[in-house]
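Students often ask why we bother encoding 3D structure as a string. The short answer is that it lets us treat folding as translation between two languages. Here is a chain of 157 residues written in the first language.
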Amino acid sequence: MQTLITPAVVIERAFRDGEYIAPETIDESSIVAAQESYIRPMTGDALYEKLLEGLHAGFVDEYLAAPLALYVRCLMAPQLDIRHGQAGTLQPRSDTFTAASGEAMRRSRRTLLKNARRLLRRASDYLDRHAGEFPDYDPMSNILNRCSIDGEFVQTF
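And here it is in the second language, the structure alphabet:
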């Protein structure tokens, strides 16, 4: 599987200091799932394939790595909360920490997704303003140019 970013980039861009996540915890399939769900619909198939080939690495690093890392974090959050093994499915416990409430987890997820959407919109706007630099980009294939959710309004263009 080809990915636009590495697990180390996910950790660097989506987790804060003190939130230790081992790089091997971030699996390649989660990165690919996030790319397919969020990046490909925005870039379109032709540009997406070029990005996977390594073209426009600066654009990926500056505009796509951060939102992609946040989307990976959101996709992986449920898996980070539990462990699967020979003893079954377990939830780690600690005397020092307590599990976050459902409301706190929902607020955190909402914030992560909101930030990821803002950053993805930033990437989309950059593509639209610099379309000449990306010959494989078709603005009509960009889902953000056809549909936008702002607050509680769904807008189609």
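Translate back mentally: The chain has a mean pLDDT of 89. Keep this in mind for the problem set.
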